[in-house]
Design goal:
It is globular, with a radius of gyration of 19 Å. It is α/β, with parallel strands linked by helices. It is built from eight helices and seven strands, in the order E-H-E-H-H-H-E-H-E-H-E-E-H-E-H. It is 47% helix and 16% strand. Helix 1 packs across helix 8, helix 4 packs parallel to helix 5 and helix 6 packs antiparallel against helix 7.
């Protein structure tokens, strides 16, 4: 049975990388609600016009409209054999709506969370440095440059530390994620559809575990 993969992970967990690898290697499209809403700014459809009107008024897009957006996108041919959801569902109400959509589409839902301890995530976020010339990413804890705060490839370039990557902002982002996501994790745990993969490893080491879950019960 084709699967709907609900992929979750805190900021810095590497969820996006795993979604990209699944898309490349399994041919499963990554459906991001954020991308869909951005694309709707220029789309000329009744649903796009409805979404634009809501967003232009400064209101949040209601669940009933969001599920219609997801339904419209996932009804296309590229989703016939399954797809990855990124950014949806965000609430248990949306999760219940997805259950109905899965039945209509004849697909099975499974949830994967890329699990990384918050103290590791905090170091990943606050330790990030980047080269202003080539964009090379370093981390003072996990992948430091050879010389302090200088790019290995461009010795004259001082590495940049983004203003968003402070300890205070990292804590807020992680706490917000925990509060929003815990009910969803509980929701899928209760129905034995939550699969955890160890996200502390390199992406290529994580991927086989993700693939194993996706291919289970085929």
């Amino acid at each position: 049975m084709a699967k709907i993969i609900v992929l979750m992970g805190a900021p810095g967990a590497g969820k996006g990388t795993q979604a990209r690898l699944l898309q490349e290697r399994q041919g499963l499209p990554q459906i991001s609600t954020g991308d869909i809403f951005r694309a709707m700014k220029d789309a000329q459809t009744p649903l796009a016009e409805e979404v634009r009107a809501i967003m232009n008024s400064g209101k949040l897009v209601p669940d009933e409209v969001t599920i219609r957006v997801v339904e419209e996108r996932t009804s296309r041919d590229d989703c016939k054999h399954g797809y990855i959801l990124d950014g949806f569902p965000r609430t248990t109400v949306q999760a219940a709506m997805l259950e109905n959509l899965a039945v209509e589409q004849g697909k099975k839902i499974l949830s994967i969370v890329v699990d990384v301890p918050f103290e590791v995530l905090e170091k990943r976020m606050t330790g990030r440095r980047s080269c202003p010339i080539c964009g090379e990413i370093y981390n003072i804890y996990f992948k430091p440059p050879k010389n302090d705060n200088v790019c290995d490839l461009h010795p004259d370039a001082q590495l940049i530390h983004r203003s968003d990557d402070t300890v205070e902002k990292a804590k807020v982002r992680l706490e917000t994620y925990a509060q929003q996501t815990r009910p969803l994790l509980d929701y899928y745990q209760k129905t034995n559809r939550l699969h955890r993969v160890d996200g502390t490893r390199e992406p290529e080491a994580i991927y086989p575990d993700v693939e194993r879950v996706v291919k289970s019960d085929e």
